[in-house]
Amino acid sequence: MIRNMKLELITVVAVLAFIVVFLIISAGGSHAFSGSDDVGSQKISELTGHPVESFKPLIPQYEPPSGEIEATLFALQAAFGGVVLGIVFGYWLGQRKASATA
Amino acid sequence: MHIMEGFLPWQWCIVWWLIAIPFLVLGIIELRSMMRKDREYLPLLGVCGAFIFILSALKLPSVTGSCSHPTGTGLSTMCFGVFITSIVGAIVLLFQSLLLAHGGLSTLGANMVSMAIGGPLAGYAVYRLLKNTTVNIYVTVFLVTAVADLVTYVITSFELALAYPAQAGGIPTSFAAFFAIFAVTQIPLAIVEGCVLALVFKYIVALKPEILIKLNVFSEDQITRARLQEGKVSPAEVRS
Questions:
Q1: Cβ–Cβ contact B238 with A under 8 A
Q2: Cross-chain Cβ contact A15/B208 below 8 Å
Q3: Most C-beta atoms within 10 A of its C-beta, which of A8, B110, B128, B208?
């Protein structure tokens, strides 16, 4: 078995620290936590002096009609990755077990 | 880190597309020759690609009060190099621009240059620098992923600064402004991403070390030493 768990510990600590920092910052209530893409777009409109709405797509594109649908598509994207990950790690684990008993 | 559709003047769209295309072409050539040679690599490519898919779907809150996503390109860069990574990154970006309106077809070139090409290139430089040193391989993985993530956002800032120089102060001023939005947000995310991918790498080392040795991601010596540290193999087994 894997005996040395140092890296696992470091990762858990890093993730926990990340969450704690987030909780402290979000408690202030002064941040919207909008996407940095949108903040970037606002900055562009600030620099150019044109409102955000005046930037029209050069190539027409599909836009998810609501945040819900967008969330679904993002979840699908992550789920697809998760499925592939599970298959491959399971496949490798099986291979290893089979070669160990052979 | 996407530049939204319509937010880049068409001249710049063309410039970034022209830079991106050679990488994509070389990536397809490399991918084809690799698949013809040995299909054993495909599962590992699947894992690397899966992480780009998962991580770039996670929009995480950060210290600056906005949300941004990690890129996950570091792992793929170490295993398969920049060109193949650019293909995988391009697929994710294409998906997001077609279905999610995150980035668009005209800005796809610029987004590919930052996430699928520039970040991986920087990560690859770090990897080459540390590969044959005594630095612990997991530290290397951490640094490669964190740098690939961070540089992606630095390049996005640079692309926007070039297209939109500030009236007072020009490109440097507007670079600083975009840098503050994109790259500073990304620092904590890059650190967490580095830890997570180092952990994933540890499991790949535990389950499938032979594929990493075959691809010469690290030397056999380094992989064996890492496995010894984990207690996966006894010293006697290594010698035989």
A1: no
A2: no
A3: B110
- How many domains does one find in chain B? 1
**Tens-digit pLDDT string for chain A (102 aa):** 456 788 889 999 999 998 888 888 877 766 777 777 778 788 888 777 777 777 777 878 787 788 888 888 889 999 999 999 999 999 999 988 888 776
Residue B195: inside a domain: yes
Look at A33 and B192 and tell me if their CB atoms are within 8 Å.
no
User: Domain residues for B63?
Assistant: 10-234
Inter-residue contact B184 to B202 (CB < 8 Å): no
CB neighbours (10 Å) of residue B54? Answer: 20
| CA-based torsion, B160, B161, B164, B166: positive or negative | positive
What does pTM read for this prediction?
0.88
The answer, for B169 touching chain A at a CB cutoff of 8 Å, is: no
CATH at B177: 1.10.1760.20
